[in-house]
Each structure stands twice: as C-alpha cells, then as structure tokens.
Amino acid sequence: MELDFRKLNADKLFDFSREEEELIFEIYDRLSGIYDLAVVAAEDSSFQLFNSGKENSLFSPKICYFITDQHKKNPFYLFIVSKIGTTVKGARTTASYDSLQIWGMKILDEDYGFISISKKKWTDKIAGIFSRSYMNIRDREFNDFYVLGSDRSKSMAFLNESRKIIIKAFSNDNFRLEIKNNILNFGLPKNLTVDNALQVAEFLERV
Asked: Would you list the DSSP string of 4-59?
C-alpha cells in the first residue's frame, strides 16, 4: 500500500519534534530526486520477515520507504526507526525513543544463511587478533572487517570482489551489516542525518 507522504496525517508524525519533521521531509526530497520513491506500511516490507515476525520494542520502524532506481529496478527498503536507549544491564533509559536512525533492507537473489560484517576498531584489532570466531578472509585489505557466517562457502559467495570493494569503500566505519537467508539488513547505529540516509541508500543500491 503506497502512502502519500505529503499528506500523512498526524498519527504518522505524532511523536516527532518540529526539527525531526523537517529533517524527515528533507530526506524524502533528497531521495526522491535520485530514486523512484514511495512510502509504504512497514508490514508490507521485509522487516517482519527479517525479524521473524517479532518487532523489537527497542528498535521499531516509524517510516518505511520502498525505493527503486529511475528504471523501476534494483528495489530495496529504507526505514527511519526509533531507538530507545538502554543501560549496560539492558534496562530502558526512557519510556520514549531517544534517537532516530536510518536502516535498510534488500532482498537478495540467493540464500546466504547467516552473515554478520562490521568494521574492526583499533582496539578490536588488538583484542581479537587471535580470535577464532571470525572467518579468515584471504584478502589483506579485508582483514579490517569482522566476518561471521553460518556457512563459509555461502559467506564467500556473498563476498565476491565487487561486494568487497563496495563494503571497503563505505566511508562510515560504524555500519552494521547482517544477512538472514536472502534478506540483507544494513544501517548506521547513529543519529539520523541526511548524509547517513543518502549513504545507506547508495550502499543498498550498489550491493
């Protein structure tokens, strides 16, 4: 079901501040200048499939964009999600969300099992240098990334040369990439910005 973004009623933007509303509209305008863009209900996306039908109450989609290129090809989803802060013990720090973030999903052509990829930090490189939990990718330049997969052959099939180049070129080191079967989840656990939204959209288009 497609929604008219400019005619969203108050129920869709009820808990956003004025500044957040302006940011959301700016992101929509910037994305719509590059891609073919529609706002859809989250339940019509791949979100529930990726989350096994159980929405995480600390991390929930507020707005869902269905995006294709200008030729109506290469589809993916972008989500503006609310994130509720937690303490180190997992308790909520507030009853309402404390930040908005941008995440996206894309349906892949193959089943790759489970894969998780993240960029190593300097301290991780020291602490995890002898870790056996992660795969040893035979690419010196890709050794800056943690790769965890349920099936090595499937993980290596996903990490072909073009995808490794795309991942290595992503400018924000804080990204999170996970794959469950044929659904890729990618995002930035950082406060929502126009640049973050454009970066995640470009990544999903290319990958």
From this structure: -GGG--TTTSTT--HHHHHHHHHHHHHHHTTSEEEEE-GGGSSHHHHTTT---TTE
